[in-house]
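pasting for ref
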Amino acid sequence: MHSLLPHRAPSATASRSGFSLIEMLTVMLIAGVLFGFSGPAINSLLRGNTMNASVADLAGLLEQARTYAVANNTSVWVSFQQVDDSLNVAVLASKCGGEQSPLELHGTVPNSQIDLIGKPRVLARLKLNDAGTFTTTQIPQLPSTDPVVIDTINSPATNATGFFTVNVRGVAIPFQRTLQFTPSGEARTTESPINLIEFAVQPCQGNVVDNRNVAVVRISGLTGQTMVYRP
């Protein structure tokens, strides 16, 4: 017995439930081209986020060191050491109280006179540099300094001051680039009061430094206040 309902031919949509090989290759080609354009942008964004996090971490360590010095009436050092493309930062405090000389060989810490405040921080892919080469051309918000900053005095990136040996991840590392906060909250890199401490940090990969991205860190010698300037 034949059905009285009309016979319908299968539609083109119903007969095609997938993609042809040519269509799939075309989609993959377009996706590859788009990823090629977006890849550098994504990498740049990730590097920028890493730089922002490292700078915020560093600024926090400096403020922590100043606060600790004032609260405990003692001298606190923030010491830097560059190891390949990582910047190691250690915060150390005198157990003796009062104002200590920033220019001494303190040996391996912690010891009977110097304590380690927290674990040393490892800021990956970050380079410590002098800030003298950076001007308002690169950083429009960067104010001029008076008197002029002298890198060999004002910059811990150049001026080797306090000397410590600290165990970082099982390796004894000598720290030689140091600034100090006094019990009154002043910041110094020398025996005498100083108007300003200045240095720069830049993202890096191996020996290659990204000169388009920089943060200039300035610390008031009188108040110990930290300011960070970015492009």
